[in-house]
Amino acid sequence: MRKITIAFLASVAGLWANAQETVSDSASKELSEVVISASKFPEKKLNVSQRIDVISSKYISRVNAQNTGDLLINTGNVFVQKSQQGGSSPVIRGFEASRVLLVVDGVRMNNLIYRAGHLQNAITVDQNMLSSMEVLYGPASTIYGSDALGGVVHFRTKDPVLSSNSNTLVKGSGFARYSSANNEKTVHEDINLGWKKFAWLQSYTYSDFGDMRMGKNYPSDYPTFGRRDSFMTRINGIDTVVKNPDPQVQKFSGYKQWDMLQKLLFKQSENVSHTLNVQYSNTTNVPRYDRLQDKRNGTLRYAEWYYGPQERLLTAYELSIAKAGWFDNINLNLNYQDIEESRYTRDYRRYDRLDGRVEKVKVAGFVLDTRKIWGGNELTVGIDGQYNTLKSTASRVNINTGASTKLDTRYPNGKNSQLNAGLFAQHVYKFKNKKLVLNDGLRLQTIRLQSTITDNSFLNLPFTEIEQNNTTVTGNVGLVYLPAAGTKLSVNLASGFRAPNVDDLAKIFESSTAARQVVVPNANIKPERTYNIDLGISQNIGKLIRIEATAFYTWFRNALVKAPYRLNGQDSIVYNGVLSQVLANTNANKAYLFGVSGAVYANFATHFTFSSQINFTEGRFQTDATKNSSVYEKQANGTYALVSKKVSSKPLDHIPPAFGKTSISYQNKNFFAEAFALYNGWKKLDDYNADGEDNAQYATADGMPGWATFNLRTSYSFKPVTLQFTVENIFDRNYRYFASGFSAPGRNFIIAARVEF
Asked: Model's pTM, two decimal places?
């Protein structure tokens, strides 16, 4: 017995020692990980004062997500809102859509019609072709200019690979995947051909997403929450509401998408290379599922509501030079983007379809970045610019005769343009004691916008031209302190800037069917500004555990919020046949956000890893303290009603409830398994912004219930094949993400086969 006890203790000691070595190595590798987005050039994460998460290609293939939105959800650190299956709108620190900057291969994706509501543009980037995805938390206006208030999501696609000898290098990969919750069928292939000086990389991904099935395990107090009891169809040419034979199936939520990437690399010399980068993404029509649930006079309002094909084309040429005169590195990127999106709606038993509110955006841009390294200094100096144009058209089409008549456009129907230009410098200084690293930077940014309304007959606006010229200076300063191995302390101060775009200034749209609100242009709004402080810590506890924590506070000035407004002296107008309250974007006097996030990582035995992340954000804005504002107030019968009330502050919209992820994973040679939980806290209705984009009409009478899902993913590799099997939402929980009008998948079985050669 004594020998058995000694042997057991020795075994435990061995497991403990192995675990210590694993955690220590993991922490060291992560801190020495190289990031690009912080300064445009490779820099160790250890030296960056701003919080950055790096999502690797290995993690991306392991998660096996259907799109980039689902990939971000699986990190446990980024909240994602969905209005339809073909949508995913990242939220970083309470900022969303046009206040979060999307970048792909160094090129800004945000354009002059990125709205402040909810966006689906992130899913036009094929996650299957990413070498990494970097998420910057907090203002990043020094490097990237306007829009990066909450942070940046930087997608980096894979690069072509040259051959190391005289033989042609042929490598590639592919996979096929099926998911049961929406009958998803996805196929992907990519191939790389490399020679000594030339390399060519191409990829194709095609996905067919069927109608999404929600979970059957409803919240106990809300037994019909989100259930799709009926839907609209045409019978003998007449719109008819019919019973849904399976209320868990979200009828008319499916769509198809295809993505293509082509890259050509020419290595002119050891220090000079040229890359041509072409990306194309397109979809079929994408049903706007949340609006298909809207009711008017007790019945479904819309017979049709869908986005037309969402098309994105990017063509970019990049020149990279190393050791060019005084500079250590020079990168030049010339790019062009062509984007089209559209909306189609038709009310119940109406013969006229509001057909083709079509927006065509073209963007020409350039980015020139240079770096110089000397002593302990690293200096990046860059200049960038983008010229956006927009053509907005609309028509009303008789579905019986095909006759077309005029319709008010979503944006001004004349000339629309926006010019962005900026000059910046970002500096890193590594002190000789190797314990301090200084990060500092400055940017001069100018943005000019012009917009013309040529047909003012629909709303008779008090102006027909909008012009804004905004110039500002933003900056950042941060300090990293490395007192001992395994310890990192950081503080970061940064200012952010976002100039109003055409969507902010001049958009006309119906904000809410339930509340009957319409948003109209306001030409007098000012740029938004933020001032942010971050405190961060990363600490190894022995060699077994690592903890990370970040706290931030953001002062938000001139925040753009939707508020009651008067158009030509009227607080309500008839829009789309309905008397609707008038709203417009206005600048709130003051707003603030604060939050904390924490994570713990541990190896408690050989091959086993534990991790857990939690995030909390709070945000409010202040009015003049004398104006009446729309708020939700609980009534005597327990329900909530929209009322006008004098308040001194209101909740900011887009603020998610507490959310996170907890995971236990096992890795042994060719086998991997992970059991994990994703969870969200409650979002009570009195914490919703009544005039914003929180979509209270798609929540319960008390708000959005908290939830947790339990999931299991596994994979087994026998080269060159990897088989993957996943069960998501094992207990078939019925739930929605906050501000979403689309229910998340129920129990979902996913199988995939991958091959690499």
From this structure: 0.91
